[in-house]
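Go through the following before class.
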Amino acid sequence: MTSIVQQLDYPVVMSRALDVPEFNMATFGETLSIERLPTEPLGTMTLTLTNVVIGSRYRIERQVSGSLATPTANAEGVAAGSTVAITLDYYVTGSANNDLKIKARKASSAPSYKPFETQTTIGAQDQSIFVGQIADE
C-alpha cells in the first residue's frame, strides 16, 4: 500500500510516496501528515444480504465501472443460506469505489426468481440489505 508522507525538512516541506511497511517514525523526524491515495482502501466493512433465496447467485460490483468490488473473491458467489455476510473494502468518503450495485438471481433450478438489483453506498459502518426476490412464473 502506498501513502504520501509530508516531512518538514527545514525550511521546506517535502512530500514523497512510500510503501506503508517502509514507514518507520524514527527515520522521519518531524512528520506533518501521512495520506493514502484515493484508490487505496481505508479498511473493511461487512455487507449483509438478508432474505436471499438459497441457491441464488449474487454479485457485488462498482456502479461506475461494473467491475467486481474488492476483494473480488468475496464479491460474487452462491447463497448457501438466506443470509450472506460479505467482507468488502471501503474507501474515503465520496469515492466512486464506495458506490455499489448488488445483484441476485436464482435461475439454475426450479423455482426460478427474477433478477434482483439494488444500489448502495458503503463506508466504515457495516450494512444490511434486504433482498426482495420475486418468483419468475
The chain has a mean pLDDT of 84. The radius of gyration is 20 Å. The chain has two domains: 2-36, 43-130. Residues 103 and 117 are 5 Å apart (CA to CA).
